[in-house]
Amino acid sequence: MPISPDSLLADLRWRYATKQFDPTAKISTDAWQAIEESLVLTPSSFGLQPWKFWVIDDPELRQKLAAQSWNQPQVIEASHLVVLTARADLELHDIDQWIQRLGQVQGTPEAALAPLKKMIVGFSGAMTPEQRHDWNRRQVYLALGQLMAAAAVMGIDSCPLEGIHAPGYDELLGLQNTGYRTAVACALGYRLATDKYAAAPKARFEKSQMIAHL
Amino acid sequence: MPISPDSLLADLRWRYATKQFDPTAKISTDAWQAIEESLVLTPSSFGLQPWKFWVIDDPELRQKLAAQSWNQPQVIEASHLVVLTARADLELHDIDQWIQRLGQVQGTPEAALAPLKKMIVGFSGAMTPEQRHDWNRRQVYLALGQLMAAAAVMGIDSCPLEGIHAPGYDELLGLQNTGYRTAVACALGYRLATDKYAAAPKARFEKSQMIAHL
Predict the structure, then answer these.
(1) To the nearest whole angstrom, how far is the Cα of A73 from the nearest Cα of chain B?
(2) Which domains does chain A have, with CATH numbers?
(3) What's the predicted TM-score (pTM) here?
(4) Of the candidates B5, B47, B201, which has its C-beta nearest A203's C-beta?
(5) Cα–Cα distance for residue pair B139/B144, rounded to 1 Å
(6) Interface residue A113 vs chain B (CB under 8 A)
(7) pLDDT tens, B145-201?
Protein backbone atom coordinates (compact mmCIF):
# COMPACT_ATOMS: atom_id res chain seq x y z
CA MET A 1 0.00 0.00 0.00
CA PRO A 2 2.02 3.00 -1.26
CA ILE A 3 1.95 6.25 0.71
CA SER A 4 0.77 9.47 -0.90
CA PRO A 5 3.15 12.19 -2.13
CA ASP A 6 1.83 14.48 0.61
CA SER A 7 2.43 11.92 3.31
CA LEU A 8 5.98 11.30 2.10
CA LEU A 9 6.71 15.01 2.09
CA ALA A 10 5.28 15.45 5.57
CA ASP A 11 7.63 12.69 6.79
CA LEU A 12 10.70 14.13 5.09
CA ARG A 13 9.91 17.63 6.35
CA TRP A 14 9.39 16.28 9.87
CA ARG A 15 12.87 14.73 9.76
CA TYR A 16 15.82 16.83 10.93
CA ALA A 17 19.28 16.15 12.35
CA THR A 18 18.12 15.47 15.90
CA LYS A 19 20.43 16.88 18.55
CA GLN A 20 18.56 15.93 21.72
CA PHE A 21 17.24 12.40 21.88
CA ASP A 22 14.96 11.19 24.65
CA PRO A 23 17.20 8.64 26.42
CA THR A 24 14.13 6.82 27.77
CA ALA A 25 12.38 6.41 24.40
CA LYS A 26 13.45 3.15 22.81
CA ILE A 27 12.74 1.98 19.28
CA SER A 28 10.51 -1.12 19.42
CA THR A 29 11.94 -4.48 18.45
CA ASP A 30 9.69 -4.67 15.38
CA ALA A 31 10.69 -1.25 14.12
CA TRP A 32 14.36 -1.93 14.81
CA GLN A 33 14.21 -5.20 12.89
CA ALA A 34 12.78 -3.25 9.95
CA ILE A 35 15.60 -0.71 10.21
CA GLU A 36 18.19 -3.48 10.11
CA GLU A 37 16.39 -5.12 7.22
CA SER A 38 16.38 -1.78 5.36
CA LEU A 39 20.18 -1.82 5.66
CA VAL A 40 20.32 -5.38 4.34
CA LEU A 41 18.03 -4.47 1.43
CA THR A 42 20.02 -1.41 0.35
CA PRO A 43 21.00 -1.66 -3.31
CA SER A 44 24.70 -1.43 -4.15
CA SER A 45 26.90 -1.29 -7.19
CA PHE A 46 26.85 -4.72 -8.90
CA GLY A 47 25.16 -5.91 -5.70
CA LEU A 48 28.56 -6.14 -3.99
CA GLN A 49 27.42 -4.83 -0.57
CA PRO A 50 30.93 -3.64 0.35
CA TRP A 51 29.90 -2.83 3.91
CA LYS A 52 29.33 -3.98 7.43
CA PHE A 53 27.03 -2.29 9.95
CA TRP A 54 27.71 -2.25 13.68
CA VAL A 55 24.93 -1.68 16.16
CA ILE A 56 26.41 -0.42 19.40
CA ASP A 57 24.40 -1.78 22.34
CA ASP A 58 27.09 -1.47 25.04
CA PRO A 59 26.69 1.82 26.98
CA GLU A 60 30.39 1.91 27.89
CA LEU A 61 31.40 1.58 24.26
CA ARG A 62 28.94 4.36 23.41
CA GLN A 63 30.69 6.58 25.98
CA LYS A 64 34.06 5.86 24.40
CA LEU A 65 32.72 6.52 20.90
CA ALA A 66 31.25 9.83 22.06
CA ALA A 67 34.77 10.93 22.97
CA GLN A 68 35.69 10.28 19.31
CA SER A 69 32.65 12.28 18.15
CA TRP A 70 33.22 15.75 19.59
CA ASN A 71 31.24 14.53 22.61
CA GLN A 72 28.00 14.83 20.71
CA PRO A 73 25.33 13.64 23.16
CA GLN A 74 23.37 11.79 20.46
CA VAL A 75 26.00 9.04 20.51
CA ILE A 76 25.04 8.23 24.11
CA GLU A 77 21.41 9.31 24.36
CA ALA A 78 19.80 7.98 21.19
CA SER A 79 17.93 4.71 21.40
CA HIS A 80 20.25 3.10 18.84
CA LEU A 81 23.62 3.88 17.30
CA VAL A 82 24.81 2.37 14.02
CA VAL A 83 28.34 2.64 12.70
CA LEU A 84 28.48 2.17 8.94
CA THR A 85 31.79 0.76 7.74
CA ALA A 86 33.10 0.24 4.21
CA ARG A 87 35.48 -2.36 2.82
CA ALA A 88 38.90 -0.70 2.72
CA ASP A 89 39.48 -2.28 -0.70
CA LEU A 90 37.69 -4.64 -3.01
CA GLU A 91 39.62 -7.80 -3.71
CA LEU A 92 39.08 -10.68 -6.06
CA HIS A 93 38.06 -12.64 -3.00
CA ASP A 94 35.18 -10.20 -2.34
CA ILE A 95 34.00 -10.49 -5.92
CA ASP A 96 34.20 -14.30 -5.81
CA GLN A 97 32.23 -14.38 -2.59
CA TRP A 98 29.50 -12.27 -4.13
CA ILE A 99 29.30 -14.28 -7.35
CA GLN A 100 29.06 -17.45 -5.28
CA ARG A 101 26.31 -16.00 -3.10
CA LEU A 102 24.38 -14.70 -6.10
CA GLY A 103 24.52 -18.11 -7.77
CA GLN A 104 23.38 -19.77 -4.57
CA VAL A 105 20.41 -17.45 -3.94
CA GLN A 106 19.21 -17.29 -7.54
CA GLY A 107 20.08 -20.86 -8.49
CA THR A 108 22.34 -19.73 -11.32
CA PRO A 109 25.29 -21.94 -12.34
CA GLU A 110 28.62 -20.23 -11.78
CA ALA A 111 29.49 -20.45 -15.48
CA ALA A 112 26.45 -18.32 -16.33
CA LEU A 113 27.75 -15.65 -13.95
CA ALA A 114 31.23 -15.56 -15.55
CA PRO A 115 30.42 -12.53 -17.78
CA LEU A 116 29.18 -10.57 -14.75
CA LYS A 117 32.27 -11.51 -12.78
CA LYS A 118 34.47 -10.44 -15.67
CA MET A 119 32.69 -7.09 -15.84
CA ILE A 120 33.09 -6.45 -12.12
CA VAL A 121 36.75 -7.46 -12.19
CA GLY A 122 37.33 -5.11 -15.12
CA PHE A 123 35.53 -2.22 -13.48
CA SER A 124 37.26 -2.75 -10.17
CA GLY A 125 40.67 -3.42 -11.70
CA ALA A 126 40.64 -0.05 -13.48
CA MET A 127 40.73 1.68 -10.08
CA THR A 128 43.47 2.21 -7.51
CA PRO A 129 42.90 0.70 -4.05
CA GLU A 130 42.04 4.17 -2.76
CA GLN A 131 39.50 4.70 -5.52
CA ARG A 132 37.94 1.35 -4.67
CA HIS A 133 37.69 2.43 -1.03
CA ASP A 134 35.98 5.65 -2.16
CA TRP A 135 33.64 3.62 -4.35
CA ASN A 136 32.74 1.47 -1.34
CA ARG A 137 32.24 4.53 0.85
CA ARG A 138 29.80 5.95 -1.67
CA GLN A 139 27.76 2.76 -1.45
CA VAL A 140 27.72 3.15 2.34
CA TYR A 141 26.29 6.65 1.96
CA LEU A 142 23.58 5.23 -0.25
CA ALA A 143 22.79 2.90 2.67
CA LEU A 144 22.75 5.91 5.01
CA GLY A 145 20.29 7.70 2.73
CA GLN A 146 17.93 4.71 2.62
CA LEU A 147 18.35 4.23 6.40
CA MET A 148 17.33 7.79 7.29
CA ALA A 149 14.44 7.84 4.81
CA ALA A 150 13.22 4.47 6.12
CA ALA A 151 13.39 5.76 9.69
CA ALA A 152 11.55 8.97 8.78
CA VAL A 153 8.58 7.24 7.17
CA MET A 154 8.27 5.09 10.31
CA GLY A 155 8.31 8.23 12.48
CA ILE A 156 11.78 7.52 13.87
CA ASP A 157 14.26 10.34 14.36
CA SER A 158 17.84 10.18 13.22
CA CYS A 159 21.06 12.14 13.21
CA PRO A 160 23.86 11.42 10.75
CA LEU A 161 27.27 11.70 12.39
CA GLU A 162 29.87 12.46 9.76
CA GLY A 163 32.47 14.57 11.56
CA ILE A 164 33.58 11.71 13.77
CA HIS A 165 37.16 10.60 14.30
CA ALA A 166 37.05 7.51 12.09
CA PRO A 167 40.42 6.02 13.14
CA GLY A 168 39.30 6.24 16.79
CA TYR A 169 36.09 4.42 15.87
CA ASP A 170 38.07 1.77 13.99
CA GLU A 171 40.18 1.12 17.04
CA LEU A 172 37.26 0.95 19.47
CA LEU A 173 35.37 -1.39 17.16
CA GLY A 174 38.45 -3.57 16.68
CA LEU A 175 38.42 -3.13 12.90
CA GLN A 176 42.21 -3.17 12.46
CA ASN A 177 42.44 -6.56 10.75
CA THR A 178 38.94 -6.85 9.40
CA GLY A 179 39.35 -5.00 6.10
CA TYR A 180 36.55 -2.58 7.07
CA ARG A 181 36.90 1.12 7.90
CA THR A 182 34.45 3.47 9.58
CA ALA A 183 32.71 5.69 7.03
CA VAL A 184 29.95 7.40 9.01
CA ALA A 185 27.62 6.80 11.95
CA CYS A 186 23.94 7.40 12.58
CA ALA A 187 22.02 7.83 15.82
CA LEU A 188 18.36 6.79 15.81
CA GLY A 189 15.56 7.19 18.32
CA TYR A 190 13.05 9.83 19.36
CA ARG A 191 13.54 13.56 19.81
CA LEU A 192 13.13 15.36 23.11
CA ALA A 193 10.38 18.00 23.01
CA THR A 194 12.97 20.54 24.13
CA ASP A 195 15.27 20.15 21.11
CA LYS A 196 15.16 23.64 19.66
CA TYR A 197 16.55 22.44 16.33
CA ALA A 198 13.28 20.65 15.61
CA ALA A 199 11.53 23.99 15.18
CA ALA A 200 14.26 25.72 13.14
CA PRO A 201 13.17 26.44 9.56
CA LYS A 202 14.59 23.86 7.17
CA ALA A 203 17.41 25.55 5.30
CA ARG A 204 17.90 24.47 1.70
CA PHE A 205 18.87 26.30 -1.44
CA GLU A 206 16.01 27.23 -3.75
CA LYS A 207 14.71 24.27 -5.69
CA SER A 208 15.23 26.28 -8.89
CA GLN A 209 18.96 26.48 -8.10
CA MET A 210 19.26 22.79 -7.33
CA ILE A 211 17.11 21.09 -9.95
CA ALA A 212 17.23 21.86 -13.65
CA HIS A 213 15.17 20.40 -16.48
CA LEU A 214 16.81 19.68 -19.82
CA MET B 1 0.98 9.16 9.91
CA PRO B 2 3.99 6.82 10.07
CA ILE B 3 3.91 3.57 8.14
CA SER B 4 4.32 0.25 9.91
CA PRO B 5 7.56 -1.75 9.90
CA ASP B 6 5.83 -4.46 7.84
CA SER B 7 4.64 -1.96 5.28
CA LEU B 8 8.11 -0.43 4.95
CA LEU B 9 9.65 -3.85 4.46
CA ALA B 10 7.07 -4.80 1.86
CA ASP B 11 7.96 -1.63 -0.07
CA LEU B 12 11.72 -2.20 0.15
CA ARG B 13 11.35 -5.84 -0.87
CA TRP B 14 9.13 -4.83 -3.79
CA ARG B 15 11.85 -2.48 -5.03
CA TYR B 16 14.49 -3.87 -7.42
CA ALA B 17 16.76 -2.45 -10.09
CA THR B 18 14.14 -2.25 -12.81
CA LYS B 19 15.41 -3.20 -16.25
CA GLN B 20 12.24 -2.92 -18.32
CA PHE B 21 10.16 0.18 -17.73
CA ASP B 22 6.73 0.66 -19.27
CA PRO B 23 7.36 3.58 -21.65
CA THR B 24 3.67 4.53 -21.52
CA ALA B 25 3.41 4.69 -17.71
CA LYS B 26 4.21 8.21 -16.55
CA ILE B 27 4.76 9.33 -12.97
CA SER B 28 1.99 11.79 -12.03
CA THR B 29 2.83 15.45 -11.55
CA ASP B 30 2.08 15.24 -7.81
CA ALA B 31 4.29 12.24 -7.26
CA TRP B 32 7.08 13.74 -9.36
CA GLN B 33 6.95 16.98 -7.39
CA ALA B 34 7.36 14.90 -4.21
CA ILE B 35 10.33 13.10 -5.75
CA GLU B 36 11.99 16.42 -6.58
CA GLU B 37 11.20 17.72 -3.12
CA SER B 38 12.76 14.59 -1.59
CA LEU B 39 15.96 15.53 -3.43
CA VAL B 40 15.76 19.08 -2.10
CA LEU B 41 15.18 17.80 1.45
CA THR B 42 18.12 15.36 1.44
CA PRO B 43 20.40 16.04 4.39
CA SER B 44 24.06 16.76 3.62
CA SER B 45 27.28 17.32 5.50
CA PHE B 46 27.09 20.72 7.25
CA GLY B 47 24.02 21.29 5.09
CA LEU B 48 26.25 22.23 2.15
CA GLN B 49 24.17 20.52 -0.57
CA PRO B 50 27.14 20.16 -2.92
CA TRP B 51 24.99 18.94 -5.78
CA LYS B 52 22.77 19.72 -8.68
CA PHE B 53 20.12 17.40 -10.11
CA TRP B 54 19.19 17.35 -13.79
CA VAL B 55 15.87 15.98 -14.95
CA ILE B 56 16.13 14.96 -18.58
CA ASP B 57 12.85 15.63 -20.35
CA ASP B 58 14.16 15.85 -23.93
CA PRO B 59 13.81 12.47 -25.71
CA GLU B 60 16.71 13.22 -28.05
CA LEU B 61 19.01 13.97 -25.14
CA ARG B 62 17.88 10.71 -23.53
CA GLN B 63 18.89 8.87 -26.69
CA LYS B 64 22.33 10.45 -26.59
CA LEU B 65 22.75 9.69 -22.90
CA ALA B 66 21.78 6.06 -23.53
CA ALA B 67 24.76 5.79 -25.85
CA GLN B 68 26.91 6.84 -22.86
CA SER B 69 25.21 4.22 -20.66
CA TRP B 70 25.97 0.92 -22.39
CA ASN B 71 22.68 1.47 -24.26
CA GLN B 72 20.67 0.49 -21.22
CA PRO B 73 17.03 0.87 -22.30
CA GLN B 74 15.98 2.33 -18.93
CA VAL B 75 17.61 5.63 -19.92
CA ILE B 76 15.10 5.99 -22.75
CA GLU B 77 12.06 4.06 -21.56
CA ALA B 78 11.63 5.13 -17.93
CA SER B 79 9.09 7.84 -17.18
CA HIS B 80 11.81 10.09 -15.73
CA LEU B 81 15.59 10.23 -15.74
CA VAL B 82 17.61 12.15 -13.17
CA VAL B 83 21.33 12.81 -13.43
CA LEU B 84 22.88 13.50 -10.04
CA THR B 85 25.94 15.72 -10.24
CA ALA B 86 28.41 16.72 -7.52
CA ARG B 87 30.45 19.89 -7.10
CA ALA B 88 33.91 19.11 -8.51
CA ASP B 89 35.45 20.95 -5.54
CA LEU B 90 34.22 22.94 -2.57
CA GLU B 91 35.45 26.50 -2.58
CA LEU B 92 35.25 29.29 -0.06
CA HIS B 93 32.61 30.77 -2.33
CA ASP B 94 30.42 27.69 -1.88
CA ILE B 95 30.77 27.87 1.89
CA ASP B 96 29.98 31.60 1.91
CA GLN B 97 26.92 31.03 -0.21
CA TRP B 98 25.66 28.40 2.21
CA ILE B 99 26.31 30.47 5.33
CA GLN B 100 24.47 33.36 3.70
CA ARG B 101 21.52 31.19 2.77
CA LEU B 102 21.36 29.62 6.23
CA GLY B 103 21.34 33.05 7.87
CA GLN B 104 18.63 34.22 5.50
CA VAL B 105 16.32 31.21 6.04
CA GLN B 106 16.78 30.97 9.80
CA GLY B 107 17.07 34.69 10.49
CA THR B 108 20.51 34.28 12.07
CA PRO B 109 22.98 37.18 11.91
CA GLU B 110 26.09 36.29 9.92
CA ALA B 111 28.33 36.93 12.95
CA ALA B 112 26.53 34.17 14.88
CA LEU B 113 27.33 31.78 12.03
CA ALA B 114 31.05 32.61 12.05
CA PRO B 115 32.01 29.60 14.25
CA LEU B 116 30.13 27.24 11.91
CA LYS B 117 31.81 28.79 8.89
CA LYS B 118 35.20 28.44 10.56
CA MET B 119 34.52 24.77 11.27
CA ILE B 120 33.47 24.06 7.68
CA VAL B 121 36.48 25.93 6.30
CA GLY B 122 38.77 23.94 8.62
CA PHE B 123 37.21 20.62 7.71
CA SER B 124 37.24 21.38 4.01
CA GLY B 125 40.72 22.93 4.05
CA ALA B 126 42.22 19.75 5.49
CA MET B 127 41.34 17.93 2.27
CA THR B 128 42.81 17.92 -1.21
CA PRO B 129 40.53 19.08 -4.05
CA GLU B 130 40.10 15.44 -5.06
CA GLN B 131 39.10 14.47 -1.53
CA ARG B 132 36.59 17.27 -1.50
CA HIS B 133 35.14 15.98 -4.75
CA ASP B 134 34.87 12.51 -3.19
CA TRP B 135 33.22 14.04 -0.14
CA ASN B 136 30.67 15.73 -2.40
CA ARG B 137 30.09 12.53 -4.34
CA ARG B 138 29.31 10.70 -1.11
CA GLN B 139 26.65 13.28 -0.32
CA VAL B 140 25.17 12.71 -3.76
CA TYR B 141 24.91 8.99 -3.01
CA LEU B 142 23.06 9.83 0.17
CA ALA B 143 20.62 11.74 -2.03
CA LEU B 144 20.35 8.70 -4.31
CA GLY B 145 19.56 6.49 -1.30
CA GLN B 146 16.82 8.81 -0.10
CA LEU B 147 15.51 9.18 -3.67
CA MET B 148 15.13 5.45 -4.25
CA ALA B 149 13.61 4.82 -0.82
CA ALA B 150 11.18 7.73 -1.32
CA ALA B 151 10.18 6.33 -4.71
CA ALA B 152 9.72 2.82 -3.30
CA VAL B 153 7.33 3.88 -0.52
CA MET B 154 5.26 5.71 -3.14
CA GLY B 155 5.16 2.57 -5.31
CA ILE B 156 7.47 4.01 -7.95
CA ASP B 157 10.14 1.85 -9.56
CA SER B 158 13.71 2.95 -9.99
CA CYS B 159 17.01 1.81 -11.40
CA PRO B 160 20.31 3.33 -10.28
CA LEU B 161 22.72 3.79 -13.19
CA GLU B 162 26.26 3.83 -11.91
CA GLY B 163 28.31 2.29 -14.70
CA ILE B 164 27.69 5.21 -17.03
CA HIS B 165 30.34 7.14 -18.93
CA ALA B 166 30.40 10.22 -16.70
CA PRO B 167 32.58 12.42 -18.97
CA GLY B 168 30.15 11.74 -21.82
CA TYR B 169 27.26 12.79 -19.58
CA ASP B 170 29.15 15.94 -18.54
CA GLU B 171 29.59 16.91 -22.15
CA LEU B 172 25.99 16.24 -23.15
CA LEU B 173 24.71 18.19 -20.14
CA GLY B 174 27.10 21.07 -20.86
CA LEU B 175 28.73 20.83 -17.44
CA GLN B 176 32.23 21.80 -18.58
CA ASN B 177 32.32 25.23 -16.96
CA THR B 178 29.71 24.73 -14.26
CA GLY B 179 31.88 23.20 -11.52
CA TYR B 180 29.60 20.14 -11.39
CA ARG B 181 30.46 16.61 -12.49
CA THR B 182 28.17 13.64 -13.14
CA ALA B 183 28.23 11.21 -10.22
CA VAL B 184 25.41 8.78 -10.97
CA ALA B 185 22.01 8.65 -12.66
CA CYS B 186 18.67 7.15 -11.77
CA ALA B 187 15.76 6.09 -13.96
CA LEU B 188 12.29 6.20 -12.38
CA GLY B 189 8.89 5.01 -13.53
CA TYR B 190 6.87 1.81 -13.59
CA ARG B 191 8.03 -1.72 -14.41
CA LEU B 192 6.75 -3.75 -17.34
CA ALA B 193 5.02 -6.95 -16.25
CA THR B 194 7.44 -8.86 -18.47
CA ASP B 195 10.62 -7.76 -16.64
CA LYS B 196 11.98 -11.09 -15.46
CA TYR B 197 14.27 -9.42 -12.92
CA ALA B 198 11.23 -8.44 -10.84
CA ALA B 199 10.70 -12.08 -9.91
CA ALA B 200 14.35 -12.98 -9.26
CA PRO B 201 15.03 -13.78 -5.59
CA LYS B 202 16.62 -10.79 -3.88
CA ALA B 203 20.29 -11.65 -3.41
CA ARG B 204 21.94 -10.30 -0.28
CA PHE B 205 24.53 -11.67 2.08
CA GLU B 206 23.17 -13.15 5.32
CA LYS B 207 22.11 -10.48 7.79
CA SER B 208 24.37 -12.13 10.37
CA GLN B 209 27.37 -11.47 8.11
CA MET B 210 26.44 -7.86 7.48
CA ILE B 211 25.20 -6.59 10.84
CA ALA B 212 27.02 -7.11 14.13
CA HIS B 213 26.01 -6.03 17.63
CA LEU B 214 28.66 -4.77 20.02
Answers:
(1) 18
(2) 5-89+125-197 (3.40.109.10)
(3) 0.97
(4) B47
(5) 9
(6) no
(7) 999 999 999 999 999 999 899 999 999 999 999 999 999 999 999 999 999 999 899
